[in-house]
Amino acid sequence: MESKRQQKFGRQIQKDLSDIFQKEFREIFGKGMVTITDVKMSPDLSAARCYLSFLLVDDPQGIVDILEEKTKAIRNALANRIRHQVRIIPHLSFYLDDTAAYAAKIEALFEGLVIPPATEEEDK
User: Fold this and answer.
1) Full-prediction pTM beyond 0.85?
2) CA dist 74 to 1, 8, 24, 64, Å?
């Protein structure tokens, strides 16, 4: 369970990172789109786990790997934005958010589910 402070700081990191990705690191994603679905902060606010979702991207895991390689530059861009608000710039780690794929899989399972109609004996 995250504290209010962790949640607020996570939302701020999420907002700033999405702005950084749209303006400064656009070439990484090509024509695809990236969404930062969630940012989980450590209790001491020194580490941020960023969950990313992609649209119109052929190899999402490959892009996550590229982002891991460029973490230092991304953290530096983040530091330029939040350096007056925090004491520690969090270490960033990026993860592929597969919630949409999981939801589609569950939806497909429900679509294929066959439920026989109830008989009169079961109604009584």
Assistant:
1) no
2) 27, 20, 9, 13
